[in-house]
């Protein structure tokens, strides 16, 4: 019986590349595994897969009765809808420990680093398995994406060393340049449906019993949103009502200015203002130095809801 290796809903590059890399590792150590995904491939992730000639994992929604290895999260809200009917055999992650629970023991590789693929690289080293060139390439790109080419406060020495080692395996001399190419792909928003943009990197969180959705769009110049910002605000308001959410927030992150404009709709905007110590104006606020949803946005918001 094969293990299904899957990341979170609305998968980013870390979830997709991590599922591929971990499934390959598991197969090499005699544990049959299949990489899967819970959503569509983003433009950035497709660019990465195309660059290294790697096929996307198969799309699979239902996992009832299956063995599942979770990648890049440990949250019920981000897992398959029927995860309670599956057997979770492992988790590899770099976020806070979420609310997934199991009835049997499982393998856990959770490290405070910038990317799940950094942890997976550690797993390859632990098992003494050689990483194929193409898989090394997509793992490297996932780390560059999650760490915003080492600009994110989540980035650690381990992430940088893993990128250097993976770049050597993949034969990539200028990984900084490749990282910037990836973010240029992310910045190409023209012609993309507004809902697709809002949901491109969107996660739901349970915060003290309140459902909060937080999306993030990382670009090299925030001016790409000037003509559509009002549409983005209207859509997150619709998304809030459709999902019965307490709040929906969208981070418009400028990786060059190293900060984010936060768009927010909420049943109680004071909670959001308390979280970040600054007032919003017409549902907008600039958060200087904020690049990481995981480290700089979610923790203070959870504290405010608590």
TrEMBL record:
Ranges of residues in domain DHHA2: 179-305
Entry EC no(s): 3.6.1.1
GO function term, MF aspect, one: inorganic diphosphate phosphatase activity
Reaction(s) the record says it catalyses: diphosphate + H2O = 2 phosphate + H(+)
Keywords attached to this entry: Hydrolase, Manganese, Metal-binding
Uppermost EC category: hydrolase
Cofactor list: Mn(2+)
Top-level lineage group: Bacteria
InterPro entries: DDH_dom (IPR001667), DHH_sf (IPR038763), DHHA2 (IPR004097), DHHA2_dom_sf (IPR038222)
Name this protein carries in UniProt: inorganic diphosphatase
């Amino acid at each position: 019986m094969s293990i299904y290796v899957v990341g979170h809903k609305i998968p980013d590059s870390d979830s997709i590349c991590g599922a591929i890399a971990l499934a390959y590792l598991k197969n090499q150590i005699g544990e049959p595994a299949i990489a899967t995904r819970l959503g569509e491939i983003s433009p950035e992730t497709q660019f990465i897969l195309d660059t290294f000639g790697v096929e996307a994992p198969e799309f699979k929604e239902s996992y009832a009765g299956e063995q599942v290895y979770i990648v890049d999260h440990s949250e019920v809200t981000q897992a398959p809808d029927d995860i309670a009917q599956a057997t979770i055999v492992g988790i590899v992650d770099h976020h806070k420990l979420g609310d997934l629970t199991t009835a049997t023991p499982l393998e856990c590789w959770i490290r405070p680093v910038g990317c799940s693929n950094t942890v997976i690289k550690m797993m390859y080293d632990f098992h003494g398995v050689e990483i194929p060139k193409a898989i090394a390439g997509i793992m490297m790109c996932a780390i560059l994406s999650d760490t915003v080419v080492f600009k994110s406060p989540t980035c650690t020495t381990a992430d940088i060393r893993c990128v250097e080692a993976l770049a050597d395996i993949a034969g990539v001399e200028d990984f900084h340049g490749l990282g910037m190419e990836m973010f240029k792909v992310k910045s190409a928003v023209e012609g993309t449906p507004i809902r697709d943009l809002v949901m491109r990197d969107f996660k739901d969180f349970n915060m003290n019993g309140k459902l909060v959705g937080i999306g993030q769009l990382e670009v090299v110049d925030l001016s790409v949103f000037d003509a559509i910002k009002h549409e983005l605000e209207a859509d997150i308001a619709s998304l809030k009502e459709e999902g019965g959410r307490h709040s929906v927030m969208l981070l418009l992150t400028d990786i060059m200015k190293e900060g984010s404009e936060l768009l927010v709709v909420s049943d109680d905007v004071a909670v959001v203002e308390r979280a970040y110590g600054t007032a919003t104006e017409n549902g907008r606020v600039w958060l200087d130095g904020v690049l990481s949803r995981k480290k700089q946005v979610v923790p203070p918001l959870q504290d405010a809801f608590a």
